[in-house]
Amino acid sequence: MLILAVLRRSPRLLLRGALAVFLGAALAAFFLIPAAYEQRWVNIAEVLSPGVRPQDNFLFTKIDDVDHNRFNLLVSLVACAEITLLAIAAFFSRPWRLRQPRVWWALSGWALVAALLNFSFTFFLWQHLPELRYLQLPWRWLLCLNVSFALLVAMSSGRWIARVLVCTTMLLLLSFVWHRVQAPWWEKAEDFSQMLASQQSGAGYEGTDEYVPVGADPYEVSQDALRVALDDSAAPDPVKQIRIQRWNAESKLFTAEVSQPGQLVLRLFNYPAWRVEVNGKLIATATRDVTGQMLIPVQAGENRVQVTFTRTWDRIAGGIISLLTALALLIGRRR
Fold this sequence. Notes:
There is one protein chain. By secondary structure, this protein is of the alpha+beta class. Among the domains are: 44-180, no CATH class; 218-312, Immunoglobulin-like. 46% of the residues lie in helices and 15% in strands. The chain contains 10 helices and 9 strands. It has helices at 2-8, 11-27, 29-38, 66-92, 101-116, 123-128, 142-156, 160-180, 189-201, 313-334; strands at 228-230, 242-247, 251-258, 262-269, 274-278, 281-282, 286-287, 293-298, 301-309. Strands 2-3-9-5-6 form a 5-stranded antiparallel β-sheet, with no helix packed on it. A 4-stranded antiparallel β-sheet has the order 1-4-8-7, with no helix packed on it. 19% of the residues are buried.
């Protein structure tokens, strides 16, 4: 937008661009507002742990991790080849050869920014631009670079043989780094089968540390933990006293008959969005130290427990903003 505003000598274009950004954010509010608000519930700082920080993933960066370095080399070689081919395409599609030279300048400017952000000398931008560091991997900007790459290659030559040559070059490079540097994906088919079996059996799968509740250590949760158990080793065998009627992703229903007051510990991380009712009454839960599991207080006798993941105010507000923005745009378009 800045390039087009300069070329057209129109500051008003920047205002239109700012409005477009605002409307785009408003359309995505159903996601952006919960993401901004609910990050305080989790260990969001783990997103920037060593190995997945921007400074660890610039092109040709090396750290004390051999597998990481091999994958980074793969991405770096692909990125350099793409940037080189893009520069050649930009040269052969020079603006004075086009009917709309502004398109060339906009695409080239966008490509330049996307390319430069892959290199370590831009680290100060990653540190200070709002939330940019949470992108983690600078080479993710190659997704943006691909837009300019595809269009400039198409604009640089009308001959199909030139386009086929570019595509063939990139495919050959991918094949080379795949076999000589690092396989693009190190998981095998049996790994995915095992993950699916773990999901279907209820054993679960390994998640990511940044989405664990604040202060919790997921590696301290026993892989054999029961869905519901008494948080008291001296209590009678909990298996005979707990009956689960429903255990879905966002809804749990079970009964627990206990001989004395105590707490039930669930195989479930305790987030503020969970609503818990015991015998029809709303109750406050607690969080187990270290593991972050939900603790539910119960009285002696039979307890009917219902656990539901609710829509908190941030999700409701975000959804309303997105809906109103979409309606406003539809109405404005018709007029």
